[in-house]
Structure formats: C-alpha cells, structure tokens
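Re: that chain you flagged

S.,

Sorry for the slow reply, it's been a week of failed gels. I finally had a moment to sit down with the sequence you sent. For the record, here it is as I used it:
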Amino acid sequence: MNQLISVGALESFLIAIFVLFLGHFINARVPLLKQFNIPEPIVGGLVVASAITVMHLNGIELEFHLPLQHTFMLMFFATVGLAANYTQLIKGGAKVFVFLAVASLYIVVQNSIGISLATAFGLDPLMGLIAGSITLSGGHGTGAAWAQTFQEVYGMENVLEIAMASATFGLIMGGIIGSPVAQRLIDKNQLKSQYGNTHKTHEQFPELVTYNENEQENVTAKKVIETLFVLLICVVGAKYLEQWVRGFDISWLMIPDFVYALFIGVIITNVQEVTKVKKLDVETVDILGTVSLALFLAMALMSLKLWNILDLAIPFLVILLVQSIMLALFAYFVTYRVMGKNYDASVIASGHCGFGLGATPTAVMNMGSVVNRFGPSPQAFMVVPIVGAFFIDIVNLIILQATLSIIG
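Prediction finished late last night. Pasting the structure tokens below so you have them in one place:
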C-alpha cells in the first residue's frame, strides 16, 4: 500500500504558483520551448506531475487540496463574458457558427480515425470512440460518463481507466501542439494582429481585453475590489443557476457551470453598456482573467495522474498519437482556411487543437500563449470558448449517438 501524504490547501496553492515560476524559468532557458510558445503551465505542470508520478511508482502518494481550482476557472470564464460587449458580439457572431461547423466536422473525422485504427488493431470498434471524441473532444467528464454506459450496456471492462488515461493524454498533447500550429501559420503567412503587438495596447484600445500577461496596466486596489465583486457575482450566480436548471431534470441539457459564468458576464457587461452606468475597468478585468486562468491551469496540470498513461496498451497510444497529428494537420489546413486565413484564424486554430484534444481551458491557454507574443485577438477569445464550452458538447452527443446506432 502506498504511503499517502496530504498537502494542505495553502501549501498546495503555493506549489501551484511555483509551477508557473518553474514553467517560466524552463521556457526562458530552453529556446525550443520559447520558440514554439509552449505554455508555461504545461511545462511547469508536467515537470511537477512527472515528479509526483516518480513518487507514486516508489510507493508515495501525494494528494493536493485545491479548493479554489474550480473557482479560478469560473472567474476566468466570467472575464470572457465581461469582455464580450455587444459591439464585439456583432463583429464575431457569425464566426461562432462557422467554427461550430468546422469543429463538428472534425468530431466525425476524429471518430472515423478512432474506429478505423481500433478495428485495424483488432480492438472493439467502440474502443475507437473512447480514443475519439468521447475523451478527446469530450474530456474527462464525458469520458467518465460514457465509460459507465459502455460498461453497463456493452459489458466492457476497464473502460473508465482507459478513458481517464486517454483524456489525460489528450489534455497534454492539446496543450503542446496548439501554439506551434499557430506559430507556423503566423510565420509562414506573415500575419499580424490588427491591434498591433506591443505591451501598451490599452493606451490605444481601452475597451480591449488582451489576456497578455505582459500588458502594462494602470490598476488600483479599488478597481481590483470592484472587479472581484462582479466576478464573484458571476461565480456564485453560475452555481445557483446551474442548480436551478438541473431542477427541471432535462437529462439531455448538460451545460457546465462555467458556461453560466460566461453568460452572466455577457449580460452584466452589456447592461452596463446600454444603460451607460459605470463600467468595469477593462485593464483590471484583463489582469484578473489572466491570473485566474494561469492559476487554474497550474492546479489542473500539477494534479495530473500521469501514471494512468503508463497503463495504456501500445495500440491505444498509437491511436492517440495519430489523433494528435491529424488534429494538428486539420487545424493547420482546414480550420485556419475556413475561419478566414488571417491572424484571428491562426489563433482560433491553436484553440481548436486545445479543446479538440483536451478541454476549453487548454484551448484558451494555447491562445493566450500566442497573443502574449503576437498581439490581441478578441474574436478568438469570444468564438472558441462559446463553441468549446457549450455547443460542441451537444454536437458531440448527437454524433456519438448516431455513430453508436451505426456500429452498435
């Protein structure tokens, strides 16, 4: 039996901040990581998760307590909503549905690859769905839900363990390939942000949320308190709104709570815009959004159980590697072209790599590392979270049901 070491909440929080410093330290000294904009939470998080995996294999179990991890995620998505005033929504509204169509098409491609390779390796075709959109586009939550279904309906064994390992693998790969795809597109096509590429964007565009951690901000304690108050309204409101909707027992409507936080933020910022009441300081929203995302990702990545991946059979690893390569190619050749062949399209392509293999926060992390270096892309930060956080789960469910009816 492994020896369990429980790390307190404050100590765990301290380690999460250390993860960010570690990622920054390594990126600054490894030119390849810096060149391809590999996100710092991915780098630092994988180093810490690897160390914890070594401890696990040697009989020591480390358990973090991170009560604020989910809150930081909700706070970030609330800032995405607060940045989406109606002028930005009008500019990019149609792009949401175009990107939804692209992402939906790739789910079909993803499942076709999974089923074909699983069959070629002599596995149950249903396992191809586990190494397809169930865990890659769906993530850990969707993987756990379908694992139970596969076990009860089809009598399959060890599905949960395989699903969790596949989702973990996808989360890591999604964070690794996204930024290099955008980097290649930007360099090859000489793309530039229409808002420029400086750390003083707010001087010229005061209404813009950049998510650039190097942006020079004019922030005061009062502005931070005001913005925190509104962000917590979004967080608490999301909690109660989710409970209220769940009370209707609509089984097909599975909306994650961070979608509610995002839409409450949209309502608040547009009510302020229309009524001309005092608006939140955009620079402060920018800072708190960037900090919230960084801390959430650091906590998520340092908690990864990498040893699950060690249990994957070679055929499954091959399928997942092929899936990673295919998404990178699809984002490069299809997503970028359909979304407009411009700078925003390249940032969206990096985001597609994130949630097509992992989760929406991974997509946003990818885009954040790109805009840190090349300049703002407000359209990408509006389009990708809305599709990745809400619409794609509904489409994924429909496609999976249709696929099961064909191969089941």
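What I noticed first: The radius of gyration is 21 Å.

Talk soon,
D.
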